[in-house]
Amino acid sequence: MTTLTLAKALNEGMRKAMEDDPKVLIMGEDVGKLGGVFRVTDGLQKDFGEQRVIDTPLAESGIIGTAIGLALRGYRPVCEIQFDGFVFPAADQIITQLAKMPLRSLGKLKLPVVVRIPCGGGIGAVEHHSESPEAYFTHTGGLRVVACSNPVDAYTMIQQAIRCDDPVVFFEPKRRYWEKAEVDTSADSAGWTPFDRAQIVRPGTDLTLIAYGPMVKICLEAAAAAEEDGRSLEVVDLRSLNPLDVARVTESVRRTGRCVVVHEAPVYNGFGAEVAARVTEKCFYNLEAPVLRVGGPSTPYPPSRLEDYYLPDLDRVLDAVDRAFRF
Amino acid sequence: MTAEAPHGAEAPSELVQLLTPEGERVEHPDYDIDLTPEEIRGLYRDLVLVRRVDLEAVALQRQGELGIWASLLGQEAAQIGSGRALTEADMAFPTYREHGVAWCRGVDPVNLLGMFRGVNHGGWDPAEHNFHLYTIVIGSQTLHAVGYAMGVQRDSAEAATIVYFGDGATSQGDVNESFIWASVFNAPVVFFCQNNQWAISEPLEKQSRIPLYRRASGFGFPGVRVDGNDVFACLAVTRKALADARSGQGPMLIEAFTYRMGAHTTADDPTRYRVAGELEAWKLKDPIERVRAYMFKNQIADQDFFDAIDAEADELGGDVRKRCLALPDPEPLAIFDHVYAEPHGLMDSERAEFATYLEGFEG
Fold first, then answer.
1. Percent of chain A with pLDDT over 90
2. Active site residue: A128, A129, A139, A263, which one?
3. Which of A153, A201, B210, B317 has the highest count of CB atoms within 10 angstroms of its CB?
4. Cα separations (Å) of A129 from A81, B255, B345?
């Protein structure tokens, strides 16, 4: 067991992947000498060289477009998009090319490209540095979309994403980069939870809180607080948004009878809408209350002095839990 | 300052040309080429056969058998010249109009039609032919080509990459980003721009105020303009650019100065945006007629040869037509195939639900 921050766990995961497979490449802006603006790729260029850890020109479409070409040549590029709000210049390459090329080739081409995106708010950043663009990508067939929430998952999921023959959009909760946990880096990967599987991270009996990425921790805190009020909340970390682990989510809600979905992105047309619809369809006769959603308003991300109002916090989650119990 | 008029009848002076529109062989200090009579007959055959495939496809579209078709009429020399410059190890990234290059790479023409008929999005194996799928989003493939070339570099392979795009594509961000990437990484890639003068209805003046080949110098690599209706010149220039790329000399931009004789696709009407005189002027520069004239004059082929090629073209056209009409529609559940390489829960459940729904109609 090693104590690792989430950022360091990603770093160790990528290091392991690069050691295991010489075709794995890291590419992006400032990923080399600087080690990335969050230092997630720290030291990799020093150890693997400039041919495998590529400092690219400053152009996001170019990063993904050339990664596609490298993947066509048999490489497995792991691209870093510096901040969530900067993925949009690359959205065309991700949506029109990366997602669809395997289908266009009738399966003859594989594109094992990972697009790492530090996501979400809570770090007091300027505009375009705190967004949650996951719904754009979950809406695109051909992409896998996953989000890690803790160092253990960060370490395993990044390696699973790199090994996967499908393109993967990999969200990293940037405000959790510095949080630590014990990670067993010697465990056999055969025993890891598949990265398209949701996990119950806290069992409970009265209501299911569903979250992913940065909101998992908030939900765990909410569940601890609710326990003092005599309510037993179960917390499910989705981990994978596409595909969604419908079976695990609905199994939980059938037991608890109540469901609240929590994310940072705007509620309107957000990923929570998909979860709520699936849960309602599959668990209609088990539900004691409508599925409720907690998230941001349908506005652009506000200036950071207001982000505490925008981001779901303990009180907003507990308020939704109260509403669910009032039905 | 005024923009140069790029699509007049007179060829610009900086044009590399080895065969005049009248079929006269001319020398060029940097790009001369020595072709055997057999090689010349081979190029002529390619030109005629791809034109025939193209005409057949246009006819099939007119008869409702293809949803749309992007004709290569007028651009045969640019495509055959560059396509025949490639070695087997080289990789080509096309747009959706490179039927002639596909021919050179051994792709069955019927596979090209499948996409336009709507039975698939590209039915050939890119790795088998070293010819990538057609790309419809303008300019996206230039970045794929550069990335692929960076892979070639890492493999220390004896190969180059060529990427095709049009004059309109040069306005795209991706094309400009690909120039930057290729330049700073010294990638073994040849950018082959077929300047056919028109981006659907927009003339070159809407894309650029300087000749396109000169853009390369701003990115730090050489550019050259070649007579795109001259198959010898296209072959010579591309062959040298590919050889330079393979030997580590980095990227090159080739602007093949040519003309799209037909519509952008069968969906548009060029008479709405261009004058008939322009078309007539370019007809005099036909890429096939000049090779034919040269071969006649130099006794490289006789009438029997030309008749035999014409007969072969007719047979090919008929064969392509027959096999196009026989292309089966895919099975409905094929919608869910190949979206993901590995098992995917959403696909599995949607496929199962759709299959159950379809089974409801049986019996």
1. 100
2. A129
3. A153
4. 11, 40, 32
Residue A118 sits in the same domain as residue A265? no
pTM of the model: 0.96
Q: Into how many domains does chain A fold? A: 2
Instruction: Suggest the residue from B165, B191, B340, B347 to mutate for an interface test with chain A (most A CBs closer than 10 A).
Output: B340
Q: What residue numbers bound the domain in which B42 lies? A: 19-330
Is residue B203 domain-shared with residue B338, that is, in the same domain?
no
What's the domain range around A313? 199-326
A76-94 per-position pLDDT tens digit: 999 999 999 999 999 999 9
Are B348 and B280 part of one and the same domain?
no
Are residues B212 and B349 both part of a single domain? no
- CB distance B143–A101 less than 8 Å? no
Taking the CA of residue B327 and the nearest CA in chain A, the distance in Å comes to 16
Cα A196 from Cα A323, distance rounded (Å): 31
Same domain for B200 and B83, yes or no, is yes
Query: Is A196 in Cβ contact with B147 (below 8 Å)?
Result: no
At a CB cut-off of 8 Å and minimum separation 6, what does B164 contact? Answer: B82, B92, B93, B94, B95, B97, B98, B101, B141, B192, B193, B194
In chain A, which residues have their Cβ closer than 8 Å to the Cβ of B122? 104-106
Classify residue B10: in a domain, yes or no: no
CA distance B189 to chain A (A): 12
- Taking alpha carbons only, the member of B95, B90, B76 closest to residue B152 is B90
Residue A243 contacts residue A278 (beta carbons within 8 Å): no
In what helix (H) or strand (E) does residue A224 lie, and over which residues does it extend? helix A215-228
A108: chain B residues, CB-CB within 8 Å: 125-127
Tell me the per-residue pLDDT of B204-226, one tens digit each, with 9 for 90 and over: 999 999 999 999 999 999 999 99
- Residue B6, pLDDT > 60, answer no
Q: Are residues A178 and A136 in the same domain?
A: yes
Q: Radius of gyration (Cα) for chain A, nearest Å?
A: 19
Q: Which of A66, A104, A245 sits opposite B146 (nearest CB)?
A: A66
Please say which residue of A191, A215, A241 terminates a domain: A191
